[in-house]
Design a protein that fits this description.
This is Putative ATP-dependent protease La, LON. With about 220 residues, the protein is of the alpha+beta class. It is built from 6 helices and 6 strands. Strand 5 and strand 6 form a beta hairpin.
């Protein structure tokens, strides 16, 4: 089993507002900008194949990055596990979430994409077995989720949701439901699965009380 000491000190970062990757989850991405095509080419030559998914920080007091807008300090690294090239040179890739990180500093370099020095301390649990949520009451949660889907005219595979274990269910919904970027960041930074589930319930209840609907769940 991988440990935090096995993770590299510096990895590429991919700032993407609203995108959420969580440990042991999978995130499909579409790469088409030239700088990120270069990034993919470079990371496929490494043994770890890691990309750091991180959201831009909208706080006006946040310090700007070396080559772009300021970034949140906490993100999640994913390993490229699948990739395919389209006829026009774009790539579809899949990231498998490995571990969250805290950005120590961005590093200089000659790459067109951004890179950062990472601290993996405090996220050892991310590299372990799936988390459980001892206080999770599945039936009331699914009832709430059903009300939310009906209110937002969403559809999904209910059989898959009902069969999913606690972590897959909570993390998949955290990643797929259309929340604001800062709400996604709160879900990412939740210290435990229980805290993430509580945050998720709060966001769903808020949306049902009149929070704006920002999209559809596929």
């Amino acid at each position: 089993m991988m440990k935090t000491v096995d993770l590299p000190d510096v990895i590429p970062v991919f700032p993407l507002s609203g995108a959420l990757l969580l440990p042991r989850a999978r995130l499909p991405l579409h790469l088409f900008e030239p700088r990120y095509l270069v990034m993919l080419d470079d990371i496929l030559k490494t043994s770890d194949r890691l990309i750091g998914m991180v959201q831009p920080d909208p706080n006006p007091k946040a310090a700007s990055g070396r080559e772009g807008p300021p970034l949140h300090s906490i993100g999640c690294a994913g390993r490229v596990t699948q990739f395919s090239e389209t006829e026009d040179g774009r790539y579809m890739i899949t990231l498998a979430g490995m571990s969250r990180f805290r950005i120590r500093e961005e590093v200089d370099g000659f790459t067109p994409y951004r890179r950062a020095a990472m601290s993996w301390a405090g996220f050892d649990r991310d590299l372990g077995q799936s988390e459980t949520d001892p206080g999770f009451q599945r039936e009331p949660f699914l009832n709430l989720l059903g009300s939310y889907f009906r209110a937002k005219s969403l559809d999904t595979d209910w059989d898959a949701l009902q069969k999913a274990d606690d972590e897959m269910l909570i993390n998949s919904l955290s990643m797929l439901l259309s929340f604001e970027p800062e709400e996604k960041q709160a879900l990412l930074e939740a210290p435990s699965l229980t805290t993430r589930r509580e945050t998720l319930v709060t966001l769903i209840e808020y949306a049902m009380r009149g929070g704006e609907d920002h999209g559809m769940m596929q």
